C-alpha cells in the first residue's frame, strides 16, 4: 500500500524471485556467465550454490526468460526430498510426459524417446533442478544416468543443479565422483558487499519509478549491509518493513535510527527466524544497555507495544480504505461542484 503513497509503480522489495528485478552484482553476473557457458556447451552439469535468499532462483529464471524457445526446451524441478523413482517421474512430468501408471523401464524409454525427438528437431533439452541439496544419492545417480543418453556424439540432456551450500558438501563426497566428472562448471554465489547493497536497493527502487521519496540517509546503506549480511532476500525483508513504517508515519526520509528500530522490531516478532545480525552501536531504547528498574522496564515495554499497535491500526485503516475504494469506486469519486 505504500507504493501509492510514494508514487511507485509496484512493490520494490517483494520476496518472491522476479527476473525483471535482476541485479548484476559481480557474483550474480559471474554465476549467470557460468550458466550461459554451460548452455553453450550443451552437455554435462552446471552446479550453482549459495545461501538461502542469495538470488540463485532469480538468476536461473532470468536465464530461462532469455532462452531461444525454438532451440532449447527447458524444464524446471523444485525438489523436495525426491528419491530415485520420484526423480524420474518428476523429470517426465516437467517435460510433459505421461508418468502416472507406467513402470520405470517404460518411463526411461519415454524420456529417451522424447529427448531423441527433440534432437531430431534440432532442439536441446535443459533440466533445471532447484533445491538440489535435498536430493538423495540415488536420485542424483538417476540424473547422471540420464546424462548418458546420446544420439550419435550429441548429448541429449543437460542439467543445472542449483542449491544451498549443503550441495557443495554433497558433491565432494566419494559417492559423487562419477557425477563430478560430468560437471563442466560450478560456482558459489556469495553475499553482496557494502557498495553493492546500496546499488541493489537503489536499483530495485528505480525499477518501480522511485524519485528519492522516501530519501534514504547515506548511513542507512552500510547499516543494512551489516544487518542483512548482504543476502538479497534479507535486504528485501528489511527494506519492505522500512518502507511500510515510513508510510505509516507519513515520513519522506529514512534514517539509521529507523533501520535500527525496524530490525529490533523484526527480531522481537520473529526471533531467530529473521536472520538479522546484531549491530554493536545499536541506539537501543532508553534503559536497554543498563538494566532499568522493573517499573521503568514495564513502561518502556508498554510504550513499544503501544507504538506497534498504533502502526497496526494505521495499516488496517489504510487497508480498509483501499478495499472500500476498490469495491465502491463510484463513492470515492468527488461529486460535482
Structure description:
- There is one protein chain.
- The protein is α/β, with parallel strands linked by helices and 337 residues long.
- It has 2 domains: 26-189, Rossmann fold (3-Layer(aba) Sandwich); 193-324, no CATH class.
- Helix content is 51%, strand content 12%.
- It has 14 helices and 9 strands.
- The strands form 3 sheets. It has a 5-stranded parallel β-sheet with strand order 2-3-6-1-7, with helices on both faces.
- β4 (150-151) and β5 (154-155) form a beta hairpin.
- α10 packs across α11 (232-248) and α10 (220-228) runs parallel beside α12.
- The longest helix is centred in the last third of the chain and has 34 residues, at 294-327.
- It is elongated, with a radius of gyration of 25 Å.
- The model is unreliable at 284-292 and 333-337 (pLDDT under 50).
Write a concise synopsis of the structure shown.
With 337 residues, the chain is of the alpha/beta class. The chain is 51% helix and 12% strand. It contains 14 helices and nine strands.
Spatial gap, N to C terminus: 30 Å
List the strand order in the largest sheet: 2-3-6-1-7
Order of helices and strands: HHEHEHHEHEEEHHEHEHHEHHH
Mean pLDDT comes to 82
Shape: elongated
CATH architecture of the largest domain: 3-Layer(aba) Sandwich
Task: State Rg.
Answer: 25 Å
Structural class: alpha/beta
Which keywords apply here?
337 residues; single chain; disordered C terminus; 14 helices; 5-stranded parallel beta sheet; 12% strand; alpha/beta; Rossmann fold; two-stranded antiparallel ribbon
Amino acid at each position: 500500500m505504500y507504493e501509492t503513497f510514494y508514487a511507485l509503480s509496484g512493490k520494490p522489495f517483494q520476496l518472491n524471485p522476479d527476473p525483471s528485478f535482476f541485479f548484476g552484482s559481480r557474483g550474480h553476473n559471474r554465476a549467470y556467465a557460468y550458466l550461459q557457458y554451460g548452455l553453450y556447451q550443451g552437455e554435462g552439469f552446471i552446479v550453482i550454490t549459495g545461501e538461502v535468499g542469495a538470488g540463485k532462483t532469480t538468476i536461473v529464471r532470468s536465464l530461462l526468460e532469455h532462452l531461444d524457445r525454438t532451440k532449447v526446451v527447458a524444464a524446471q524441478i523444485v525438489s523436495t526430498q525426491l528419491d530415485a523413482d520420484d526423480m524420474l517421474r518428476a523429470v517426465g512430468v516437467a517435460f510433459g510426459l505421461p508418468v502416472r501408471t507406467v513402470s520405470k523401464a517404460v518411463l526411461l524409454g519415454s524420456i529417451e524417446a522424447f529427448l531423441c525427438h527433440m534432437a531430431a528437431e534440432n532442439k536441446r533439452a535443459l533440466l533445471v533442478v532447484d533445491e538440489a541439496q535435498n536430493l538423495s544419492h540415488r536420485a542424483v545417480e538417476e540424473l547422471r544416468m540420464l546424462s548418458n543418453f546420446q544420439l550419435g556424439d550429441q548429448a541429449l540432456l543437460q542439467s543445472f543443479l542449483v542449491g544451498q551450500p549443503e550441495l557443495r558438501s554433497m558433491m565432494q563426497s566419494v559417492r559423487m565422483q562419477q557425477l563430478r566428472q560430468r560437471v563442466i562448471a560450478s560456482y558459489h554465489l556469495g553475499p553482496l558487499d557494502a557498495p553493492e547493497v546500496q546499488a541493489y536497493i537503489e536499483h530495485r527502487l528505480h525499477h518501480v519509478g522511485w524519485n528519492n521519496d522516501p530519501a534514504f540517509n547515506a548511513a542507512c546503506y552500510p547499516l543494512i549491509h551489516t544487518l542483512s549480511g548482504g543476502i538479497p532476500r534479507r535486504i528485501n525483508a528489511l527494506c519492505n518493513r522500512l518502507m511500510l513504517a515510513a508510510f505509516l508515519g507519513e515520513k519522506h526520509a529514512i534514517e539509521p535510527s529507523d533501520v535500527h528500530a525496524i530490525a529490533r522490531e523484526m527480531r522481537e516478532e520473529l526471533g531467530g527466524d529473521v536472520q538479522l545480525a546484531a549491530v554493536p552501536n545499536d541506539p537501543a531504547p532508553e534503559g536497554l544497555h543498563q538494566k532499568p528498574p522493573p517499573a521503568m522496564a514495564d513502561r518502556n515495554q508498554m510504550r513499544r507495544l503501544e507504538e506497534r499497535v498504533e502502526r497496526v491500526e494505521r495499516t488496517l485503516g489504510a487497508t480498509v480504505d483501499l478495499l472500500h475504494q476498490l469495491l465502491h469506486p463510484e463513492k470515492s469519486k468527488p461529486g460535482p461542484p
